[in-house]
Amino acid sequence: MTQTNRITARFPKVVPLALVLALPLSPAHAADTAAGQFSEWAADATVTRSMTLRELGFRQALTLSGQESQREIYLPVPAGVPTRDAQLQLDGRYVRGHTGRSSGLWSVDGDPVAARSITDPQGDASQLLAIDGLPRDNGFVRVNVGWWSVVSDYRCADQSAPANVLRLSPDSRFSYRFDGRAVNTVAKAWGALPARVRLLVDGKALQAPAYDAAWRVGAALRNGGKQVDVVALPVVGGTVDLTGISIPASLQGVPAYAALAAGGSQHRIASLAEVGALLSLRDSGPLAVDVAISTDPLRAAVRAALDALATEVGASGGDAAAAFTAWRGSDMAALEKGTGTASVSVAAVAGRPTLVVAADAGAKVAGLLSEQWRAYALGRTLQVAQASAAPVGEDAVLLSRLGNIAGTLDIVTRGDRTASFELGALSADGRLPDQVVVDVSAAPNAAGQGAVASIYFNDYLLGAKVLASDGKPQRLVAKVPAYALAARNEVRISFLRQPARPYCHDPATAFPVSVLPSSHLTLAKRTLDADFIGAASQLAHANEVFVPTTWLQDAPASLAKVIAIASAVGVSPQAAELKVVAAGTAISPGHPYLAFALAPSGISPAGLKDGRLVVNGGNQPLLDVTGLDRAAAVQVVDGGGHTGVLYTDLGAQGPLLEQPFRLLRGDLAVLDGSGVVSDFNSQDPYGARLADVGNPQPWWQQHMVWLLVLVALVVFALLAARVAQIRRRRASGSSGH
């Protein structure tokens, strides 16, 4: 196979490409002594990040096919922070069912960095891309992959090639390093978080304030697209997973580090010094945390663990004690001393930039970390007095306030602009999105043809129009049906063109289209059913979250459920009130609520008793099953005077809710932890109501029969009146004679 495989760095004079690719993504050369190791840790703030496309939300393979196809991938990096040794290992394969030749082009931020010509029927298409370390102010590296096929050298021949396909694996890996000291604001710390965030709490059993802060901050992280692992600070006698741990040889003379090095994948903690050692292990340790809830018990436990470790390190002799003290002051002060009067601060914890949140400021910090306000967190140590969602006082909301949708695109065949929003952010006083109003303009192509503009709402096509060829602004209006609404919504404006080639050998040329800033959503009073969408519109405002007291005794496990379900049903973490009640107690909600293993009096949710799943239908159950395990039921109820959502584990163990999911349809859902939701609508099991409400015909067409009957009655009444009038005249005329 003839192949050109060329990778070029954007700035070869600064770092030669061969050197970039040879550099490992690992810490600097290990020190020879314990003192040297702690001194090295204190001086080195290098942080390594590695993530797959799957972890970034690409759950399926990316495929490019045909004559010409391009895809853009946005890779997150800390905004405004230089990176080092950044590279993207794209794993892929190609198949070619058409003759001719195909080629691929890989670009980074619009700069071509690799090209490849392909003639074989199939083969490996993996590509390693070196990415320069310039800071990205928007927090993303834009990688473009292009695929082209030429079937015939005769220019006027049909060049369509649907069987020529390039497939990119979702297991492709992006990795980079950066200096943690450059992360000097809360906003930058958010951008520096990995795809999977470790949230540290002070222990397995938590007090209510710490539990409250942890679920709120965790829900804010999950709403921002992060996966959250809640990690409890281990205690003596507890067990930790040491898979992947790396103990420097220079520290294995210290008993605590030696015990960890000799431990298996599941290690039982034998001393406080081992806890201190785990805190020091940076990226490779199980306590390499990204967010910490600062409480008095956490600070005391960290201090005791480091004191015990200091005793062992000091006994190793030399300058180890002094080096350990210096490292402790630079890398552990935030966990030992907390945030002081601050609500949230950015601090170095074992060399990693970590968000330290005060336990009494969980709601305010969750509001600050929301999509609306996190870009304003421009400080290392912040006191948050208030961070609430802006009220919607008018009946129109600009789409540009919901996403970067306004602007101009040069379109050859297709181009999209999107904006997304939480349903609850716009729902107020019963008002919900009613219409999408899009103002657009598009230049005609070379043949004088206008582009086609289409409006999608959560992938439902609401309307489309062939734009006028005069290039003047036009307005498109599309009604938003109730079935299109979701807890999180996306508006997409798509432009399509038929490539115009006056002569067959002319290249296809791009022409501009624009989404104008006046494009907006209109809001109107709407009534939603008692389902997950209706619950989401209410839980976005003042709400209550109920958990049993027993859940606080196993906080890491229960917090994972609270965080996942609160995000899935659209609970506002900053507007919620946590209520901890005794297990088995009937709750009395005062607002729309989310309850875990609890229910109001008179309500028997599915699974609450003995894990029995019962789906009712009228006077008798439609489904009655026992013995389910590793599953959960989530149900919308109208009990206690307010709309509520009830969560109950089915069986001895509930599901692990790691995969992101949303509860969209019906009033009952069964979860198995795989991200697949089995939902059911007990009020409308066959969708008859949805079919009626979703009728797109105008009112007069829907009621044409009754209109005709009414017209017939009016005509009959008029004829009857006329006949009666004629008879009266005749009668009066005959009486006159």
What labels describe this entry?
16 helices, 5 domains, disordered N terminus, six-stranded mixed β-sheet, Jelly Rolls, seven-stranded mixed β-sheet, single chain, alpha+beta, transmembrane, 737 residues
Contiguous helical run count: 16
Query: Would you tell me the structural class of the helices and strands?
Result: alpha+beta
Cα radius of gyration in angstroms: 32 Å
In percent terms, what proportion of residues is strand?
Answer: 25-35%
Low-confidence stretches: 1-29
Overall domain count: 5
What general form does the structure show?
globular
Q: Can you tell me about this structure?
A:
It is a single chain. The model is unreliable at 1-29 (pLDDT under 50). It is built from 16 helices and 42 strands. A seven-stranded mixed beta sheet has the order 33-32-35-40-39-41-42, covered by helices on one side. By secondary structure, it is an alpha+beta fold. It folds into five domains: 6-179, Galactose-binding domain-like (Jelly Rolls, Sandwich); 183-382, no CATH class; 410-427 and 436-525, Jelly Rolls (Sandwich); 532-688, no CATH class; 702-736. This is Cyclic di-GMP-binding protein. It comes from Stenotrophomonas nematodicola. Residues 1-30 form the signal peptide. The chain crosses the membrane at residues 704-724.
